[in-house]
Design brief:
The protein is an alpha/beta fold. It has six helices and twelve strands.
Length: 349
């Protein structure tokens, strides 16, 4: 599967200036290894994963060799039986593990949603490269170069396709979570996925994949890829968000919105006046994209409580409710919604 993907901009964001400092992130309730032993295709990868804080204050993970999911559980009094896999971005050379990982997981937990941060495999970054000082983003190092189809052009992974490998990790995560959903008090038919930038590319690739690893609903946040994707007749409901001052994300998001709408599949698109890639330009409507996502989840019935009795006891969380499912009409209500949000509309809802 070689899908054209625009890698250039997300790669530029991933190689920001670094400062190796101790990092203290809230540990997950559980960490789940996705493969028994080495992940297929990375048997010869022998480098060490690292997580650190950049000089810009971002918490970053690099050189993932052994893909995992990190489980963050909602308060048991709020748990609604829905889960989302969270795929951070970082240009396939890093994961923005706090900004697009832990921070998002905690926002989902507040809605009652179980969150599983996906740490998928990445392009190797040599840790001996001198760290540039703070300032404008440095040029893309040559050893990070990736083709438009995801092929790694240089370095120890040369010839491998990072798009295929990361998508395989996402599919394995969905496969595992569906099989073990009831262990966590989750309805196996209410598992969605949210991806940011490169993580959005992974999310959209999974939507094209086989039904057993396709999310039940999905959100691509400034990560539509090229947007040239025709939805299947049963394609999952899709939430899209981007900023109009982010050239990489806008056109692809519009294409996906049009394709889903043409196919009469549920879709919602928010284009904010400001925000740039990563929604780093603050002060506009993009500051509140998670509120818009919550509105969408609630409107489609995924935040309504369903009870799923766990089949196994978790050491830190227990659930016990009666099984029910949202009304079929809830996912048909508002088949398409398009929102262009100016800066003066920020926080208006």
């Amino acid at each position: 599967m070689r899908t054209p993907i625009c890698f250039a901009i997300v790669l530029g964001l991933a190689v920001a200036s670094w400062a190796q400092t101790p990092l203290h992130l809230t540990p997950p309730d559980r960490e789940i290894q996705l493969y028994a032993g080495a992940a297929p295709g990375s048997e010869k990868w022998n480098w060490v994963e690292r997580t650190f804080t950049t000089r810009r204050g971002s918490d970053v993970t690099q050189n993932v060799v052994h893909p995992v999911m990190q489980y963050y559980a909602p308060d048991r009094t709020k748990a609604c039986g829905t889960a989302m896999i969270v795929a951070p971005g970082g240009g396939f050379t890093a994961l923005m593990i706090r900004y697009e990982g832990l921070g998002i997981a905690r926002r989902l937990n507040a809605m009652g949603v179980a969150a599983f941060i996906l740490k998928y495999r990445l392009v190797y970054v040599d840790p001996s490269i001198p760290l540039p000082p703070p300032g404008p983003l440095p040029p893309q190092p040559p050893q990070h170069r990736i083709s438009d189809t995801g092929e790694i052009l240089e370095g120890p992974q040369q010839g491998q396709n990072i798009g295929n490998l990361s998508t395989a990790d996402g599919q394995q995560a969905m496969r595992w979570l569906r099989a073990h959903a009831r262990d966590f008090g989750i309805d196996p038919h209410r598992i969605g996925m949210i991806g940011f930038s490169a993580g959005g590319v992974v999310t959209m690739a999974m939507i094209k994949g086989p039904a057993e690893t396709r999310p039940d609903f999905a959100a691509a946040i400034y990560g539509p890829g090229d947007g040239k994707q025709e939805p299947a007749p049963d394609a999952p409901p899709l939430f899209l968000a981007a900023a109009t001052d982010d050239d990489w994300s806008v056109d692809g998001s519009l294409r996906l919105y049009s394709a889903w709408r043409k196919a009469k599949r549920p879709v919602e698109l928010h284009l904010f006046q400001m925000g740039a890639h990563g929604f780093l330009n603050k002060g506009g409507g993009s500051d509140h994209f998670m509120e818009r996502l919550e509105d969408w989840l609630r409107g489609n019935g995924w935040l309504g409580k369903v009870g799923v009795t766990p089949t196994a006891t978790l050491s830190q969380r227990r659930y016990g409710r009666t099984v029910s499912k949202p009304s079929p009409s809830s996912t048909k209500r508002g088949m398409a919604k398009l929102c262009f949000v100016g800066a003066d509309a920020a926080g208006s809802r």
